[in-house]
Design a protein that fits this description.
By secondary structure, this protein is mainly alpha-helical.
């Protein structure tokens, strides 16, 4: 059955492609955060272990919201490591980092997700896709706040 929500198919496809990049960034950041949760050590272990758990749990919920938005506008959501690796602007880490480097990498990842989300707004405004804009605004608020909280751990 065709989709008639007031956004043309080509525009929905463009939005879905952008959301797919956001989904890939979010999932890659989820994996990175979960990895760091498992492998963090040092004097801030307990604080970071718990903080990273809160963050990866929030990211796990977010990937579902993003994927469901892609589906609701009529396109398949990417769902494999292979697809995510091609679409994500966030790189994987090799080896185990020290706690401060983990924090820095997570700040970079949080900010990358914000940039990916922000890059979609011109299309969303042009197509009047307020539901996707609302989702992205909420995601950006979470990622900007999380980046700020992580950055504050690095201040002397």
């Amino acid at each position: 059955m065709s989709i008639d929500i007031g956004i043309e198919e080509q525009d929905r496809k463009e939005i879905a492609q952008g959301l797919s990049r956001l989904l890939a960034d979010t999932y890659t950041l989820y994996l990175k955060t979960h990895n760091f949760h498992w492998n963090v050590t040092g004097p801030m272990f307990r604080t970071l272990h718990l903080m990273f758990e809160e963050q990866y749990t929030e990211l796990a919920l977010a990937v579902d919201l993003i994927a469901e938005r892609i589906r609701s506008i009529g396109f398949p959501a990417p769902g494999t490591y292979h697809e995510f690796a091609k679409l994500s602007s966030i790189s994987e880490e090799v080896g185990v980092l020290d706690a401060e480097d983990m924090i820095r990498k997570l700040v970079e990842g949080q900010e990358a997700v914000v940039r990916t989300a922000r890059s979609l707004f011109q299309t969303l405004e042009r197509t009047h896709d307020e539901p996707t804009a609302d989702l992205l605004t909420q995601r950006m608020q979470v990622h900007e706040k999380t980046a700020w909280m992580l950055r504050s751990l690095l201040e002397e």
